[in-house]
Each structure stands twice: as structure tokens, then as C-alpha cells.
Specification:
With about 300 residues, the chain is of the alpha+beta class. The protein is built from 9 helices and 8 strands. It has one domain: Gcn5-related N-acetyltransferase (GNAT) (Aminopeptidase), CATH 3.40.630.
Length: about 300
């Protein structure tokens, strides 16, 4: 499945555990837990090159924080004080493996990691781990950066271009630095950490970093997201162009909640709906899924 991506928030999709070791499954908080959780919804998916902001202590300090830059907009448990965003370095094998394992839990786009790595290199993607302090009681892999150990419990990206389906034309309404717009995408948090405030924290930080070089620039005036259309979600549209799409796909997963409502509470406004994501139907046909495109002005 190419992925019914929700852009800013991604929904874990249960997949057969083919070719995935028990260690990989355990390290990301089991695929069974992923299936039960069904998706992430907070009740509930730069510079000149990567080295410019992954190896510079000053740059990393500028984008790392221990508190959200704005108040939470939905009730959630207390945000862990150790929460921080740390740039992902896909040149490091252990970080590539951690990202791959998290994409397994998410359910799609594990095949896009090389494409994302290239975007990091050319400065169009600022890709971050959502990190907490290591917890010996949790079977979650860690990594070290500049002598500090971090526990990545999710990831999020701030992009200068729309990295979408293969061979599709990028949607410049989502990202166009010349017009002052960046897009937040690939937001994912492990199921065990849902309702912890980490999703809101990651969004708040990306909105802040949109105006901080090298991740963005002072000329950025808005950020965007895209998420699965409510027509396919709980309470959505009956029939083949809505909830019936799940039957056409034949995937064994629950109908998701409507993530658009969460974005609206974060200040995002819908500006269009259009076909965006693809998956493979039961008969081998390509299914197109609509996305809601949303934008938030940065004050």
C-alpha cells in the first residue's frame, strides 16, 4: 500500500509481520498495540545540507526545547519535561533502523526512507525525532548525540517542498518558501505515548522552527498540513466515495477518527479537498483517497 497518509498525523496500519523480527516489533511497541490503537490522533502520521544542523551544537540548541512553545489545545496527560526535537541523521545505521521500525508500526512509507534521506541532504526536509529521556522500563531503542542519550518515541518533519506520491506533481499550496509557506508532515507518535501531549508539542515546535534558519526563514508566514478527508472517518459519508472505500481496499483495520478536528483546534483552516493518497484495492486496482488541505497563519 502506498499509504493512506494523513500528512500531518499518520495512522498506524496493521500489517502482517512478514520479515520483521521480534526485536523490531518489541522495540517500537508491538504491532498488536498498533492495531488496537488503530491510528494516532492525540486522543489519538535544513540549511544547505543535513550536517549544517545535525552536527552544529549551536543550531541544535536553537531548535531543541523542553516545553511547548504554546499552550496545549486538547486535554492530555502532563507533557514529559524531557520532551525535545532532535534532527534525524539517516547516515547513521541505528537511526535508519529505528525509523524503519517506527514506519512498520505506522503501517506505510517505510520504502520512502531513501527519498526522505535525499531530501534531508538537499535541505528541503528538516526531519526530527520526538525524544524523551531514556526509560529503562520501556523496551524502546535509544541513540546518542553529542554524548547525550535520547529515546525517540516518534518523528515529525518540516518540509520546504511537497514530498508526495511517486511521479505526482508537488502541490505548491502545501509548501512554497518563495510564498512564505512550509508544510508539517510525517507526524507519528508510538501508540504507548498517545495522549501525552507530544503531538501538540511537535506541532508547536515545527511552527516555531518554520521561522528559524536553517529549518525555515523569517519570511515564512504560514504552515500547512494535509490529512485524510473526514468522508472516510467515523461519522463520514456512506457509499463508495466515502466509508465504502475501506471495503474496496479490504484492509483489516478500524475506521479512523477525524483528525481534521484536532487540527482545527490547533488553529488550522481547511482550504481545499482533493485526491492525494493511493492504495491497492482487493482487485489490484489503484484507489485514490481525498485529503483535506489545511493552513495556519503564523502571527
Amino acid at each position: 500500500m502506498a499509504g493512506v497518509m494523513t500528512g500531518g498525523i499518520e495512522m498506524p496500519r496493521p500489517e502482517p509481520n512478514g520479515g520483521v523480527s521480534n526485536k523490531q516489533v518489541q522495540s517500537t511497541g508491538s504491532l498488536r498495540e498498533s492495531k488496537q490503537s488503530a491510528f494516532f490522533h492525540l486522543q489519538h502520521d535544513a540549511g544547505n545540507n543535513f550536517r549544517a544542523f545535525s552536527s552544529s551544537t549551536a543550531a541544535e540548541t536553537a531548535m531543541t526545547t523542553n516545553a511547548p512553545s504554546g499552550p496545549a489545545t486538547m486535554p492530555h496527560r502532563q507533557l514529559p519535561s524531557s520532551a525535545s526535537l532532535i534532527p534525524i541523521d539517516l547516515k547513521i545505521a541505528e537511526e535508519r533502523q529505528i525509523l524503519y521500525d517506527q514506519r512498520i508500526v505506522c503501517g506505510w512509507n517505510k520504502d520512502k526512507i531513501p527519498k526522505w534521506a535525499a531530501a534531508i541532504e538537499d535541505g528541503t526536509r528538516s526531519f526530527f525525532w520526538i525524544c524523551l529521556a531514556p526509560d529503562a522500563e520501556k523496551d524502546i531503542p535509544t541513540f546518542k548525540r553529542d554524548g547525550t542519550t535520547y529515546m525517540p518515541v516518534g518523528h515529525v518533519s518540516l518540509d520546504k517542498v511537497d514530498i508526495n506520491e511517486p511521479d505526482a506533481v508537488p502541490d505548491t499550496t502545501l509548501a512554497d518558501p518563495a510564498k512564505g509557506v512550509l508544510t508539517i508532515t510525517s507526524l507519528f507518535v508510538l501508540p504507548a505515548f498517545h495522549r501525552s501531549g507530544l503531538g501538540a508539542f511537535a506541532m508547536d515546535e515545527c511552527e516555531r522552527l518554520a521561522r528559524v534558519p536553517p529549518f525555515g526563514s523569517e519570511s515564512i508566514v504560514a504552515v500547512t498540513v494535509n490529512t485524510l478527508s473526514p468522508r472516510y472517518c467515523v461519522g463520514g459519508v456512506e457509499g463508495p466515495d466515502g466509508l465504502g472505500q475501506w471495503e474496496r481496499e479490504g484492509a483489516d483495520r478500524p475506521v479512523p477518527q477525524n483528525n481534521m478536528l484536532w487540527y482545527e483546534k490547533k488553529g488550522y483552516k481547511r482550504y481545499k479537498e482533493a485526491p492525494r493518497y493511493t492504495s491497492v484495492g482487493k482487485q489490484g486496482e489503484t484507489l485514490w483517497w481525498h485529503a483535506c488541505f489545511m493552513r495556519k497563519e503564523l502571527l
